[in-house]
Design goal:
This protein is 7% helix and 41% strand. By secondary structure, it is mainly β. The protein has a 5-stranded antiparallel sheet with strand order 1-2-25-24-23. Strands 3-4-5-6 form a 4-stranded antiparallel sheet, with no helix packed on it. A 4-stranded antiparallel sheet has the order 7-8-9-10, with no helix packed on it.
């Protein structure tokens, strides 16, 4: 039996704590109610506390060494929260973005040596000349006096596409001088010859995890460097809509979450050069009709470490290392966007294997991003589909 299939069988017999409709009914259905009660989990009790309100489609959060919190708003604004207050004006210097469908200003990460170089990185949907198409793009810039200076584009995904979603655009530093970036499959339909789908095509960037040096150049030890007609920045492939990316700082392992179609959202343990199968293998179904897209397994294609059916639409992913919730140290936390499953999930990991998962919190609003703050609390950026202002909240322990 192939190693990946052996892991899958172990996964299916483990107590995975899949969130069912009955479970959802027991979780808090109201955002106001979520903030007024104590939530009990297997290891910690906690409360939900508002940090700041008035953000429109917040997508990502990142802290500066001085305690300032940077927040991207998908319509194209970079905001600063200072001393618990949202500064009234956006940060100048952000490039024009393509705000169509799922696209816009997306991730923000701070260079590990920000105190010395002042560098921040932004990912966004970049428009072509007439705005009819877009692609996932990364810039870096110096953040000085609350504005971006020396803006430099370091990556532009190939090729452009007119479709409005599946940009990916999550970023993470590995602490070894490399920046990892996700690039979604840009909604390429899973039809016809699945082996030649965009996510399986190594001649472009769609449906991939990508690896760069911090200046956007390609490391010489990337798995596909030197192969003809292959994009050298590719680290792994066979992905769909990659919305979570996080390193385990203890082990150095990289984990990723992505949306399946109708079911089949995945949590993946990412390794270089590996094919994660979309759409040739998937636990999701064709939208609306519920028919199979491909198979469930194939030799040479990696199984997910875990999957969700029905879909929670995972977004935001982080490993917890803080001291406020000591029994959660080393656990993964993933947000959810899907109606009925807008939950925060705690996922327990042993090596490359998921051993259990627990739904901690259910909200009316989408959980767009999940981050650990420098204070050890867990921060959540909430979002909605109507572009009404929403809040950033955090989980605080209740003894």
């Amino acid at each position: 039996m192939p190693r990946s299939m052996a892991r899958r069988l172990t996964m299916l017999t483990a107590p995975l704590g899949v969130c069912t409709a009955a479970t959802v009914a027991l979780l808090s259905p109201s955002f106001a109610a979520a903030q007024s009660e104590v939530h009990n989990s297997a290891l910690h009790s906690f409360k939900v506390v508002t940090v700041v309100e008035g953000l429109v489609n917040p997508w990502s959060m990142a802290w500066l060494p001085n305690g300032d919190l940077l927040v991207t708003e998908r319509p194209g604004r970079l905001r600063i929260i200072r001393d618990g207050k949202l500064l009234p004006e956006p940060v100048p210097g952000v490039p024009a973005v393509r705000v169509v469908g799922q696209g816009g200003l997306q991730d923000v990460v701070v260079h590990p040596s920000f105190a010395e170089n002042r560098l921040v990185y932004l990912s966004f949907a970049k428009p072509n000349g007439d705005g009819s198409q877009g692609t996932t793009t990364v810039i870096r810039a110096r953040l000085e006096n609350d504005r971006l200076n020396n803006v430099e584009e370091i990556f532009e995904a190939f090729p452009y596409s007119a479709t409005p979603g599946h940009y990916g655009a999550r970023m993470a530093f590995d602490g070894k001088g490399h920046l990892f970036v996700t690039s979604g499959d840009r909604m390429a339909p899973p039809q016809g010859d699945l082996e030649h789908h965009a996510a399986q095509d190594l001649s472009h960037d769609h449906g991939k995890v990508l690896r760069f040096n911090e200046d956007g150049s390609v490391p010489s030890d990337n798995p596909f460097v030197g192969r003809p007609n292959v994009r050298p920045e590719i680290w792994s492939y066979g992905h769909r809509n990659l919305q979570g990316l996080a390193f385990n700082s203890t082990t150095g392992d990289l984990w990723e979450t992505e949306h399946g179609p109708q079911g089949g959202d995945e949590l993946n343990f990412i390794r270089p050069g590996v094919n994660y199968g979309w759409p040739v293998i998937t636990y999701g179904m064709n939208y609306g009709v519920g028919t199979d897209i491909g198979g469930r397994a194939r030799e040479g294609m990696e199984q997910p470490a875990a999957f969700w059916v029905p879909s929670i639409a995972p977004s935001g992913l982080m490993f917890y290392t803080g001291d406020k919730f000591p029994k959660w140290q080393g656990n993964l936390f993933a947000g959810g966007l899907s109606a009925g499953y807008r939950q925060l999930s705690r996922i327990m990991i042993e090596g490359s294997r998921v051993t259990n998962r627990e739904p901690l919190l259910q909200l009316e609003l989408r959980i767009r991003d999940v981050r650990q703050g420098p204070d050890g609390y867990i921060y959540i950026a909430t979002d909605n589909t109507l572009s009404n202002p929403t809040a950033i909240v955090r989980l605080e322990p209740v003894n």
